[in-house]
Design the sequence.
């Protein structure tokens, strides 16, 4: 079985119809990891300023299902939205499922039609680290702005 992970449940249903049962299509329903609500989620004391991601409660059932499916799948593909956030979601899903972000195939398409999907699965690529890094830089900029507003006494 091949597993194809998209962001949207409605997109998953539509894509599954066009792939004729050759793929198990599931939705991550967006982000499966986030910064914790209980603290800032950034390593300030260690000086690395790296984010500490957690799986939010609302994503746990989805993550559990995706992990089960990924374990039995011959191959896992990402088909998250083709933008920096979609690439970042792909990375978060990969890390959460224990998949290698450098080798897990990622497909892209601009329309949900049978020919477009067949072309996409025949020509996969990997996650675009430039887009992931752009997403991270965007988040770091927001974090810097928050930290600038904090007064340390």
Sequence:
């Amino acid at each position: 079985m091949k597993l194809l992970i998209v962001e949207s449940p409605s997109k998953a249903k539509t894509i599954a119809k066009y792939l004729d049962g050759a793929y198990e299509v599931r939705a991550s329903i967006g982000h499966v990891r986030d910064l914790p609500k209980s603290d800032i989620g950034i390593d300030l004391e260690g000086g690395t300023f790296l984010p500490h991601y957690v799986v939010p409660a609302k994503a746990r059932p989805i993550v559990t299902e995706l992990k089960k499916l990924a374990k039995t799948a011959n191959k896992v593909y990402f088909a998250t939205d083709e933008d920096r956030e979609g690439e970042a979601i792909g990375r978060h899903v990969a890390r959460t499922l224990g998949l290698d972000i450098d080798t897990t195939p990622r497909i892209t398409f601009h329309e949900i039609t049978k020919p477009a999907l067949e072309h996409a699965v025949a020509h996969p690529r990997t996650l675009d680290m430039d887009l992931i890094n752009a997403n991270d830089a965007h988040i770091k900029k927001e974090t810097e702005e928050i930290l600038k507003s904090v007064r340390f006494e």
Observations:
- The longest strand covers residues 2-6.
- The mean pLDDT is 88.
- The beta strands are 2-6, 23-27, 75-78.
